[in-house]
Amino acid sequence: MRYLFLLFGCFFCQNTFFAQQNSPRPTPAQLTWHDTEFYLFLHFGPNTFTNKEWGHGDEPESVFNPTDLDTDQWCRTAKQAGARGIVITAKHHDGFCLWPSKFSTHTVRESPWKNGQGDVLRELSDACKRHGLKFGVYLSPWDRNHPQYGTPEYNDVYASTLTELLTNYGELFEIWWDGANGEGPNGKKQVYDFHRFEKLAAKLQPNAVIFSDIGPGCRWAGNEQGLILTETNWCMLDTAGFQRGAGGPPVDVLNAGQENGALWLPAECDVSIRPGWFYHAEEDDKVKTPDQLWDIYLRSVGRGANLILNVPPDRRGRIHPNDSLALVRFGEKIRYAFIDNLALGTHAARYLTDGDRETFEVLDFGPSGKGYELDLGTKRTFSTIVLREAIHEGQHVRAFKLEVRTDKGWREIARSNTIGARRILTFPTVTSQKIRITVLDSRQAPKLAEVEVY
Ligand code: FUL
């Protein structure tokens, strides 16, 4: 009997061991990407001057002529908003390159801006370095200008332009592959060699994360409102059989991820501060308010995704005052919300039971059983709790609840589903000395990496 138990015991242990081993985990580049949390997206190019969203690729290069382009202003605004990086449309669907690419004749070089001597990417990547921001590029696979688009040679062109971007502008944190894909100037659609492009990026910029409907670094969240729609967001996804663009996974699957997905493919939420992606003067009074941006932040970053917020520079090449004002106020909201972490310097207590037996084993925020108890040392007033799972060991929590200690016992203040990279919970202000976090359901032994209280 004893041996039978050992046998089963070992069998169970081994299974658990293998399951733990097999659970998808982020790469070091993805872990760093998770910490980047929130960054700006800049849509800028001929559309800014022609008042379009999707240029046809036949716009004369002469339209591109910003009068007062100032990448330092972009970076200052990003910093004040609390963003940690900037991704720019190096090339949108119209094929116009914001750098003087050798593989196109539709670039800043052919424009009157700086007498054809300018390079927006050089200016922005240098400014990002000066301001301590990460830098990333959007390079549209769809190209409505390039004469070779729709032929196998275009894959060489795309690989060459990608190489220019990946070798000339320092370290990139993200490469953005848009799913939109239509016909080129010759009416043909392209069959892309994405496998080749992925290998190239992995070789030239191993720390960059590639965004697309199916990654391989991070996934589109399935809507352009910047939202994780429910309280479930798994960082895992199965992509076998799916493609970028029209053949992508269903949008609700992209939004929630898949608990048993085979790949670590976390969600990135994209949204514009205005109705359009490019600047249009008639949208100057349609800029999202700081409160709207904060709500988006809580439903994206607060639900374990990253947020890429588009802020389109205007025809001067500057961020419009309405947008920068909203961003500065939004940044203040973020800073104010997370200014004083009451959990700093406290000890967490491991909550050992599933039920109501209140036995606690004190330890620093380390591996846990079912949850943690946090003693703030004295009664404190707070309205926000941030939880982070130890995602370097995978994502496991399916459901959890938060309670505070009152004179009458424990009182539940929040209950939700997944945690993942981070979960921000806001609730009506409470005053208490003790907080209890109970994991109600999880795939494997859950581990929290951090608890913050504000
Ligand atoms: C879409 C594009 O077609 C839009 O123009 C924009 O770039 C957005 C971020 O992605 O698929």
Structure described in brief:
The chain is an alpha/beta fold.
Describe this structure in words.
- With 454 residues, this protein is an alpha/beta fold.
- The chain folds into two domains: 6-20 and 340-453, Jelly Rolls; 37-337, Glycosidases (TIM Barrel, Alpha-Beta Barrel).
- The protein is 26% helix and 25% strand.
- The protein is built from ten helices and 17 strands.
- The chain has helices at residues 2-22, 28-36, 46-50, 71-81, 120-131, 152-168, 194-204, 251-256, 290-300, 321-337; strands spanning 38-42, 85-91, 134-139, 174-176, 209-212, 218-220, 236-237, 263-264, 267-272, 306-310, 348-351, 360-363, 371-389, 397-406, 409-416, 423-442, 448-453.
- Strands 1-2-3-4-5-6-9-10 form an eight-stranded parallel β-barrel. Strands 11, 12, 13, 14, 15, 16 and 17 form a seven-stranded antiparallel sheet that branches.
- Helix 9 links the parallel strand 9 (267-272) and strand 10 (306-310).
- The longest helix is centred in the N-terminal third of the chain and has 21 residues, at 2-22.
- The N and C termini lie far apart (53 Å).
- Bound molecules: beta-L-fucopyranose.
- The site of beta-L-fucopyranose (FUL) has 6 residues, from loops.
CATH topology of the largest domain: TIM Barrel
Write the CATH architecture name of the largest domain: Alpha-Beta Barrel
Beginning-to-end CA distance, first to last residue? 53 Å
Quick one: how many beta strands? 17
The pLDDT mean sits at 90
Number of domains: 2
The CATH homologous superfamily of the largest domain: Glycosidases
CATH C-level category of the largest domain: Alpha Beta
